[in-house]
Design a protein that fits this description.
The chain has 267 residues and is α/β, with parallel strands linked by helices. It has one domain: ATP synthase, F1 complex, gamma subunit (Pyruvate Kinase, Chain: A, domain 1). Helix content is 61%, strand content 12%. It has a four-stranded mixed β-sheet with strand order 2-1-3-4, with helices on both faces. Helix 4 packs across helix 5 (193-266).
Length: 267
């Protein structure tokens, strides 16, 4: 019986240590949520401004001559895959990779340590990914697209719906689509729409990558917080169950000792 109580004490200590770790990780995630949400919201506003600008430029007939509006169908696709730097975030990373697996013929460009490890690329961080990093990648991608080295470019990221809900999605950003009836009132581009569109393409792609990275990071910290909260509750319940079992085992051991003493004194 004493062996059983010793085993239970060890298990209780182990689960308590795990609970303390999940609590600490949950607090770290909580401390990052506000900053991540602020960056995400600014990114969404920036994204809307970029998309509105591209819509106006792409509506012009001359812009159809742009290499960034050429539709090709040779089956060559590149996808930027944005995942987290760490695990313990529920299904966050798994959902991204599950969506990526539906494009088996695509070439993947990973952002985030987990994505880089999965696709065997040089490690980079999604949390610390800067606009300069995105601009360098966007410049390379735009040059390759303009040269016809691939047909379309997409981004797989995670949309932040709420602290409790995040959803993996894919956004296609190249080639640009011709817009129908955009609001062009009072808008004049110099020297002309085609020139501006060709020059703004890499900034647009870099902006979209940056915005998706910010949105994904906000989703990651929210998912980690929820996962750690859930793990903490499960650990607390396990400790309660183990403590009850320990008390019963201890009481049984005490009762057995008393019985043995009484029986011995009777002899």
């Amino acid at each position: 019986m004493s062996g059983n109580t010793k085993t239970l004490r060890v298990r209780i200590k182990s689960v308590t240590s795990t609970m303390q770790l999940t609590k600490a990780m949950g607090l770290v995630a909580s401390s990052k949520i506000r900053r991540a949400n602020d960056a995400m919201q600014k990114g969404r506003d920036y994204c809307k401004a970029l998309e509105d600008t591209i819509a106006v430029l792409a509506a012009d007939r001359e812009s159809l001559k742009s290499p960034y509006m050429q539709v090709r169908d040779t089956g060559r696709t590149k996808i930027v895959v944005i995942a987290g730097d760490r695990g313990l975030a529920g299904g966050y990373n798994a959902n991204v990779f599950r969506l990526a697996s539906t494009f088996p013929d695509a070439e993947f460009i990973p952002i985030g340590k987990r994505a880089c490890e999965r696709y065997g690329k040089e490690i980079n961080s999604s949390e610390h990914y800067s606009f300069d990093d995105a601009l360098s990648l966007a410049t390379e991608l735009c040059e390759e697209f303009a040269e016809g080295k691939f047909d379309r470019l997409g981004i797989i990221a995670t949309k932040y719906n709420s602290v409790m809900s995040q959803e993996a999605f894919i956004k296609w950003i190249l080639p640009f689509e011709k817009s129908e009836n955009p609001d062009t009132a009072g808008i004049v581009f110099e020297p002309d729409n085609l020139t501006v569109l060709n020059n703004v393409a890499r900034e647009y792609v870099a902006g979209m990558i940056t915005v998706c990275v910010r949105e994904s990071f906000a989703s990651e910290v929210a998912a980690r917080r929820m996962a750690m909260d859930s793990a903490g509750k499960n650990a607390q319940q396990m400790i309660s169950d183990l403590q009850l079992e320990y008390n019963r085992a201890r009481q049984g051991a005490i009762t057995q000792e008393i019985t043995e003493i009484v029986a011995g004194s009777g002899d």
